[in-house]
Amino acid sequence: MNCFVCGAEMRPFMEKSFALKHLDACRYVRCESCGLVVAETLYDMPHAQWQQLNRECHAAYQHTDALAVDPNWLPRLHAQAELLTSLKNFGVIDSPAVDFGAGDGKLSDFAGDWLKKFDEFMSRPDENYLTELAPGTFNFVITCSVFEHLLGAADVEKIFDLLTDGGTCALHTLVCEEVPRDPNWFYLQPVHATFWTNVAMKKIFAQYNFKSCAYHVESRLWLMFRDEEKFSRLKSCAEKISGTWSFAADFVDYWKVKPYRS
């Protein structure tokens, strides 16, 4: 297969056994050019089986102690909600806004009802969940722990196409300088299909017309701007917002040294 980011050839990289009902062994391939790694087995999987696998894994997740799996989960959520509240108060982001892949909706619960929720696979326990999303209607879209679940260009486009021409996207995922060739790497989860490198993310950043980028270390959030005025507004008020910032006219390739952080 060819890389959906840059078109270069992808070659066999490694395999991992999961021994699940809907996923036994998983093959991974790597792009020779941008370093993107994808789970070829998941990409080739029939859509109905992919949905079953997601429901199997997310049902287990909903009954798991999330803090035992990821002790940084709630502190990170609170840091993200605090950051989003500050950004909204300073006029850097505004409604309509949606948390795409919201899961159980805690980020919106912490940030406020202005941040709507959407999730294809998790239950929808309150009225703040949206059931349909129209392209080009959101000034702000955030995705947390979603980009590793995407299955190619169409899934990426579905998210970015939700934005208005001047919209802003906030992104939380793991972005590596180089994906480790290690079947025991903690990030090789059954429904993690795409593993991003800095080079691959820079290409996506340009392809979808983002103009500038900021990274907030404590919340593990990238903010990708199409509107330069909003980016300038953030830079002017950043010192009033708690945390450490990095700014660039391109995707901020912050995590370049192992161990990579999620």
Estimate the helix proportion, in percent: 25-40%
Give helix and strand order, one letter per element, not per position.
EEEHHHHEHEEHEEEHEEHE
Distance between the termini: 28 Å
Please list the strands of the largest sheet in the order they lie side by side. Answer: 5-4-6-7-11-10-12
How large is the share of residues in beta strands? 15-25%
According to DSSP, the number of beta strands is 12
Overall outline: globular
Your description of this structure?
Helices cover 29% and strands 24% of the residues. The protein has a domain at 70-248: 3-Layer(aba) Sandwich (Rossmann fold), CATH 3.40.50.150. It contains 8 helices and 12 strands. The model is unreliable at 62-69 (pLDDT under 50). It has a 7-stranded mixed beta sheet with strand order 5-4-6-7-11-10-12. The chain is an alpha/beta fold. The protein is globular. The longest helix is centred in the N-terminal third of the chain and has 17 residues, at 73-89.
Summarize the structure.
The chain is an alpha/beta fold and 262 residues long. The protein has helices spanning 40-44, 47-62, 66-69, 73-89, 106-111, 153-160, 198-207, 228-237, and strands at 10-17, 25-31, 37-39, 97-100, 115-118, 138-144, 163-172, 175-176, 194-197, 212-216, 221-225, 245-248.
